[in-house]
């Protein structure tokens, strides 16, 4: 097949649009389908991921080059136009090659090659910075949304999150960081592997992590043998925050109540093993419970954490890695920003509160619960924690991870940021059930 790399990138965009696929999950299958490796695989990956990430910006530019509204352009034609725009404006592809190859792609997949040729020639008339200068948008948030390719409501939510920690001036830096492809970070699971086994530079804050220098994680022996894994440094710090939380009395039984897909559970289990404790990993969805087991976690239970499938007062340490909007991980899932809606957060908050409340019933008096989200959004972070503190006898315990500039919106909580720490925007709050708390049914 002619030009399989571009065809593969188009297949990814189509799968994301028509099947609600996640680009990072469908990419390996598409690369294998076209037998792509090395530079060709890298080109296809950047073309697909970069196009999805910058879609909002490219749509604004394409709209200025079309003689009709974007809504009247066939979806499959728009996919091709976006791929062409990304090559012209953001990749090191000569303009003539980008246009010719994209027109050829249009011939294979649409009946609009003439339109694609005409529009992309208009796109190529200016550099990206020049386009951003001529597309005049007066409202600051609308302009930030266009320049940084985020939906406006997401820009507003992130601005409010930064305001909550006194950093509203960092909005552009955060949005810029969201558009940088994240580096691959590995984690050495204590007692099973050593950091020195892993190829790469040590992470700044986690004692277990390295940033992979090059190549595939699956080529690393420790990863292939499940003694190590791929895990963002922020997620590593979540596991460490729970494991190192101060505890009075027994420390024998830990629970990860929302364990899928299993990365944090695998690290927690290793930490528990080293300390003579036992981890139970709970996951409501059966297929995600299978993913947890695939990480090598030995004790996996399929149950609804919000309905407390365990006896009250059973556990000493408990992680609530709550289902959330994921707006703190937009670097990793470039299509997610276009799928999420404000209503999604409104639906998630009651579930987050139920999970955290259930978790506090499941730990013994004196036990601790770490509430974590991969979202900095105020409703999912400060709002949930304050609500549960008001409705229960739980007490907030300060977290000190030694990470600079990581103070959260409530004193004692932690908020990591892509632009400050190079991690996903993980939020953490540690709650303790009082020693005097009476037994709960």
Structural account:
47% of the residues lie in helices and 12% in strands. It has 19 helices and 12 strands. The protein has helices at 4-19, 23-33, 38-53, 55-65, 75-90, 95-109, 113-123, 128-134, 140-148, 152-163, 171-178, 221-224, 233-243, 263-274, 286-294, 336-339, 342-362, 382-391, 418-421; strands at residues 185-188, 200-202, 209-212, 228-230, 253-256, 278-282, 300-301, 315-321, 363-373, 395-397, 414-415, 427-432. The longest helix is centred in the last third of the chain and has 21 residues, at 342-362. The N and C termini lie far apart (64 Å). The relative contact order is 0.09. The model has no long low-confidence stretch (mean pLDDT 95).
Note poorly predicted spans.
none
Please tally the β strands and state the result.
12
Binned, the helix content reads 40-55%
Mean pLDDT: 95
Measured by DSSP, the beta-strand proportion falls in 5-15%
**What is the 3D shape?**
globular
* Structure annotation, total helices: 19
Distance between the termini: 64 Å
Instruction: Give a quick account of the main beta sheet: strands, pairing sense, barrel closure.
Output: 8 strands, mixed
Question: Rg, please?
Answer: 23 Å
Structural class: alpha/beta
């Amino acid at each position: 097949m002619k030009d399989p790399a571009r065809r593969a990138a188009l297949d990814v965009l189509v799968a994301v649009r028509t099947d609600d696929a996640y680009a990072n999950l469908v990419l390996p299958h598409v690369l294998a389908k076209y037998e792509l490796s090395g530079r060709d695989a890298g080109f296809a990956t950047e073309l697909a991921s970069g196009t999805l990430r910058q879609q909002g910006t490219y749509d604004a530019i394409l709209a200025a080059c079309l003689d009709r509204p974007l809504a009247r352009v066939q979806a499959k034609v728009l996919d091709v136009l976006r791929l062409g725009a990304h090559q012209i404006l953001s990749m090191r592809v000569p303009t003539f090659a980008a246009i010719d190859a994209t027109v050829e792609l249009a011939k294979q997949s649409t009946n609009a090659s003439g339109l694609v040729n005409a529009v992309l020639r208009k796109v190529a008339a200016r550099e990206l910075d020049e386009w951003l200068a001529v597309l005049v948008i007066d409202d600051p948030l609308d302009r930030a949304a266009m320049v940084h390719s985020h939906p406006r409501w997401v820009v507003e939510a992130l601005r409010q999150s930064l305001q909550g920690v006194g950093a509203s001036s960092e909005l552009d830096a955060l949005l810029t960081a969201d558009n940088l492809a994240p580096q691959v970070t590995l984690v050495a699971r204590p007692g099973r592997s050593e950091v020195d086994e892993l190829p790469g530079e040590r992470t700044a804050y986690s004692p277990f992590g390295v940033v992979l220098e090059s190549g595939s994680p699956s080529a690393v022996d420790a990863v292939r043998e499940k003694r190590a894994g791929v895990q963002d440094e922020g997620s590593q710090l979540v596991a460490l925050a729970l494991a190192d939380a101060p505890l009075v009395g027994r420390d024998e039984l830990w629970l990860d109540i929302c364990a899928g897909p299993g990365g944090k559970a695998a690290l927690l289990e290793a930490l528990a093993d080293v300390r003579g404790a036992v981890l139970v990993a709970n996951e409501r969805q059966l297929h995600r419970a299978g993913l947890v087991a695939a990480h090598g976690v030995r004790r996996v239970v399929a149950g609804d954490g919000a309905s407390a499938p365990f006896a009250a007062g059973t556990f000493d340490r408990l992680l609530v890695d709550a289902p959330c909007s994921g707006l703190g991980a937009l670097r990793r899932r470039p299509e997610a920003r276009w799928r999420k809606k404000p209503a999604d957060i409104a639906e998630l908050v009651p579930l987050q509160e139920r999970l955290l409340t259930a978790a506090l019933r499941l730990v013994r008096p004196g036990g601790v619960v770490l509430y974590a989200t991969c979202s900095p959004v105020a409703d999912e972070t400060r709002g949930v924690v304050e609500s549960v503190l008001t409705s229960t006898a739980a007490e907030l315990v300060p977290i000190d991870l030694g990470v600079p500039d990581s103070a959260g919106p409530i004193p004692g909580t932690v908020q990591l940021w892509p632009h400050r720490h190079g991690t996903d925007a993980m939020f953490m709050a540690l709650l303790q059930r009082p020693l005097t708390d009476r037994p709960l049914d």
